[in-house]
Amino acid sequence: MNASLTSEFAGTGTLLRFFLRRDKVRIAVWAASMGAMYLYCMTALADVFGDTASQQARASLMRTPASIFMAGPGYGLDHYTLGPTMANELLLWFCIAVGIMSILQLVRHTRAEEESGRAELVRAADVGRHAGTLAALGTVFVANVVIAVVSFAALQVGSLPQVDNLAYVTSVALTGMVFAGVAAVTAQVTEHARTASGIAVAVVIASVFVRAAGDMRAVGGSLLSFFSPIGWAQQMRIYVDLRWWPMALSVASILVLLGISAWVATRRDFGAGVMTVKPGRADAHASLASPVALAWTQQRGSAIAWAVGFAIMFVASGTYLGGDTLESMVGDLVAQNPIVADVLNPQAIAASFGGIMLLMGAVCAMAYGISAVNRARTEESAGRAEVVLAAPVSRWRWIAAQLVPGVVVTALLMVLAAKGLWLGQATTGGTAVSFTQFVGTGLVYIPPILAVVGLAVAIYGWVPKLGAVPWIFVAWGLVAGMFGQAFSMPTWVLATNPLLMQHTTGQTGFYWLPNVILDGPHNWWGLIILTVLAIALFVLGAAGFRRRNVPAV
Amino acid sequence: MSRALGGKAETRHTLIGGRAGCCLRLESVLTPPKTEGTTMAPQGAPIEIHGLSKAFGSTQALDGLDLVVQPGEVAGFLGPNGAGKSTTIRVLLGLLKADSGTASLFGGDPWADAVALHQRLAYVPGDVSLWPNLTGGEAIDLLARLRGGANPVRKAELLERFDLDPSKKARTYSKGNRQKVALVAAFASDAELYILDEPTSGLDPLMESVFTGYVREVKEQGRAVLLSSHILSEVEKVCDTVTIIRNGKAVESGTLASMRHLTRSSVTLVAQSPEVVSTMAGLAGVHDVDAQPSGPDTRMTFDVDNDDLPGILAAAGSAKVTGFTVQPPSLEELFMRHYGDDVSATAISDDDGDGGTAGGVRSRLAGRRARRHQGGDAA
After folding, report:
1. Interface list for chain B against chain A, based on CB atoms closer than 8 Å
2. What ipTM was assigned to the predicted interfaces of this complex?
3. Domains of chain B as residue ranges with CATH
4. Confidence bin at B6 (pLDDT 50/70/90)
5. DSSP letter string over B77-101?
């Protein structure tokens, strides 16, 4: 009995070392990015909300439903300094980030390996039934520990209490491990890696919603908040009134999930799941008859997910514009802090806030557009482009089919963002910005987004190796858009960001995009240039694709 | 092994003949190919390649390749991985632009007239990659519709013959099943030219024979097939002509019969008297003699130039020969002649040193054969 139990785990150590060797770069990148995020957040929060008045203004904002949804239960709102802010507003996002990382990492080494058949090779060797899962969990554990150590070091840079710093990174790591446990179960139950990680990520999203619902009932949350693994981390009252016992819930649930995973593993065949997949269509729907229909089938799922995400995010943000929350908060802030005056224009607070939210939307829509172009790259490198191009389909038609759905969805996302903001504002009785102004601003952002997407197309057509370059504009668009004015960057530096929008009424300095929420006159030349540039880059890219080898070598 | 392979090919021939016959019933389902002069499309040989070169950076993938495929011809395109087969096919499909030389499909330029030419061909890639969220059936319909529409009767028949479940998502298919999806899509379409890049990799022998049946069927309808492969028995079974490609050059091409004629056959004879060895070894065109006592008799193997076979037959008639087999060179041996030096580098060399590169290769091959025979006798 004992010997057979040991044999169930045979090879765990070897596999763990192997997984870690495969993942060392991944883990390093995650740890470095997380550490950088901690540093950035601490510095940014300390700078922007450095004094008592602005802290209290922010604390009052944190009592609104939309804020509770996107932050936490609101411990320490009475004395809302850097520590409570980190715990209340950022813990959620760090938990989501490591949760998703842990899920992807675990599924990558378990169900994905099994589905590809590589695990069969491994299992045929002297390797026990549970060794793969255990080694995968070990890898995720190491990843979480490395992230925790790096994050701890980052937190120590500030002057926050050390024991709370420790609690912070430990709670994040444990939440990551809980979701790794969830993925260990879904990887056993489902037959496909995508389904396994999909269900586990859905559990993360559900955890966000459940704790949000619980937290909205009362400041500090309610019993419902304890039905979410993210809630357990947030309920530790880090930096406010630290308590450790919610961690026990995380540890217990990790053990239970591992037990369930192991139990399922002993009851199923290799390669099989517990959930069976229902058969699909034997014949294609009549509409699946063209390259564009094919491309749309490929991105329909992610387009819908983005649209739903945009709708939730912008309707929720729009609710800030109703009532007087925003006016009073920003009014106080601006009185205290001139930097805020640069970020949020006091002359038209609602307009600026709407503009900044739409800037976020523009950056996200740009990311969607670039990833849509990269789908063409994937189709090509996977050899699927070749199959379609071997049919009577011209290069023009193929590249157009790849790009049209992406461009249309990108533009629709901006319209959706604008309408969402307006709807959120309207439901809370706000009238500061009109429907036309919102939609107009959303539309103004479309040409610069498509200019960057066009750059991605041109790069794809001529130098496909440099596919990562357009992402610079996404990052830069966000940084320059948010802080460009505050840090008084020179105009020529700011002009490298095509999302640069008019900042004040009658602004004489350079801007690409007129801000239609502000009163005129507006300078439309930048917008016209960007429109022409976008079209030119699309044509240029398609022409490059027309003349190059497929697949590009 | 090559001998056994030759024999197997013979028996399969008749078996497949029967299968092909049953496929022909379905001819009515498929409209006959457009005959010359009835279309506006440019006319010419389905495939004509002369002096084709293509380099990727410093790698010369194709280096002056020649290849012609006529209507109604099944052309084998042989070469190991990396010889340039897929590159040639991608040039023919207008996916890659040639550096120099000419390639034409039906007399048209595959790069400039891709769309018009693709209406007349069907393609099966070597490593079929499908859209993971589409089912096999959806992928087949899509590919057929891109070519102008699927014939549901033909599709159903092909699915049944290839034993493929079309309702599964492509990401769940094995390599063999993905290959079947591409084959069903190709044979369901009404093409004048089928370009098949290692189409049977991943298929089991039963499915391979279904595939061979369909290749014969399209051939009998006067359509052309370019079958790239490194499975020699498959090429031997269905191809009329063979082109062997090496380092981007055609090193041998022609009908299988004419290629065999250029080379030697191997002879095994059993005689009561050991004197037969010296008699035979003295005749013109005899090479690589090997003799072993086999019970009371002597068993002798040697290769002979095909032109000198009559002399051997005459000599055998006058000697007291109790067994006599002449085996034409198998495709494997033709192939090994061109790739033998690569192989012999890793093989144990017991070269008896008759000098010259080609001769050396041949003798090494003969030596390997002899060893196999000895092994066979011992067992």
Report:
1. 56-57, 90, 93-97, 114-116, 118-119, 121, 123, 125, 127-131, 133-135, 137-143, 145-148, 152, 165-169, 171-172, 182, 195
2. 0.73
3. 14-27+63-256 (3.40.50.300), 263-378 (3.30.70.260)
4. very low
5. EE--TTSSHHHHHHHHTTSS--SEE
